[in-house]
Prior knowledge:
This protein has helices spanning 3-13, 16-28, 33-37, 44-56, 75-108; strands spanning 31-32, 60-65, 68-73. The chain is α+β, with helices and mostly antiparallel strands. A hairpin with a 2-residue loop joins strand 2 and strand 3. The longest helix is centred in the last third of the chain and has 34 residues, at 75-108. It is elongated. The N and C termini lie far apart (46 Å).
Amino acid sequence: MDARxxxxxxxxxxxxxxxxLVQQIAARGDATATELAAELPVTRQAVSKQLSALADxxxxxxxxxxxxxxxxxxxxxxxxxxxWIAEVGGRWDERLSALGRSVVRARGAR
Length: 110
């Protein structure tokens, strides 16, 4: 697991607008900044900037199509972030279980 890439994914998805763009593109299959901006109260340039941040994090693949760039979701970086969450969550589960066992033993010793 590439920790730097996981950091980029979390940074990119930390913005609600970027999360919304990922959801919209995933629902469509692909989209251009112009198509997305037509449905939003922001400029095409603002959407392009957000798409660029998502692409830099590896969450989107950009493909030139004539004068436009089409974006599609790439699931691999998101999968790495999910794996990181599961790994950290597993460690917490182990610690909480150990704490629970300690509490039960302490209560039984009274």
